[in-house]
Amino acid sequence: MQKSLICLTFLLFAALGYGTERDTTAVDTTTVVNEKINYWKKTNKVGVNLNEVAFINWNSGGNNSFSALLHGLFGRKYQKELLNWNSTLAVKYGFNAQEGRELRKTEDNLEINSNFGYRRDSVSNWYYSAKFTFNTQLSFGYRYPNTEAPISKFMAPGYAFVGVGSEYSSPKEDLTVYISPVTQKSTFVLDQRLANEGMFGVSPAVRDEEGNIIDEGEKVRTQLGFLVSSAFSKKIFDNIDLNNSLRLYSDYLNQFGNIDVDWELNLDLQVNDYVKANVGSHLKYDDDVKFKQDLDGDGTLETGGPKVQFKQLLGVGIVYSF
Prior knowledge:
Elements: H1 2-19, E1 40-53, E2 65-80, E3 83-98, E4 104-118, E5 126-136, E6 158-169, E7 174-188, H2 192-196, E8 206-207, E9 213-215, E10 220-237, E11 240-251, E12 259-270, E13 275-285, E14 292-293, E15 302-303, E16 309-321
Antiparallel strand pairs: 1-2, 1-16, 2-3, 3-4, 4-5, 5-6, 6-7, 7-10, 8-9, 10-11, 11-12, 12-13, 13-16, 14-15
């Protein structure tokens, strides 16, 4: 009886000891998260530059004036392995109101750019590229003070470039150089009155001896030529950015060697996250754009030759990015 009790007690302690034994096996609780890669980059910027001058009993004289420039830039860029697709939409519109004078337009531009590129491997900096560019204006343009007959309007003119070529993208600098031996340039003048006058390089209307129109002027002119364009940007100082763009085009069929130039240079000065200043210049030359002016002093505008177009900008305003 005593031996049986000892054996029962031993078995009881053994069972209790087994039941309280701790499991020291490590459990892996790591959670694997599959991070989604976004191949898109976006740019959304809107802003306004303002300039105002007011006089009250000012001895030196002067006219009250107010100027504003509204601008927006919207971009989408897709980059994945060997593919690169970059598209932008830029809009600018400015006006000036001066005491004793009608409201006048100072800036008007709508521009769309889209560039698709493919490279052979991830090491090469050269892309097989196709490029599309379109630009026009939004409202009527006048030769002030005459506001009766507009000299330009939406799609009069409008320009479209479509071509294929090769683009170099620098891996160290924000620099691209595009070379296209085959680019079609289309000039649109969709206002028949301006087309009849042969504005912006389209063929004018054919008239009889009395000035009556026999054949209407063409509204679209198509050219085929060679295009070279470049874009470069660099941070000069912590709060100063330089942006430079240049486009050179020459038509194969019409006086090859005459080069159309479109060169824009801008300095962006950042005061803080919202307040920015801009100093810029824009130079254009198109051999097909003839200027009307009074050559003989009789009060009638005659068609002259092409001229260099130049514009300089200086503004301070607010920019919002989202």
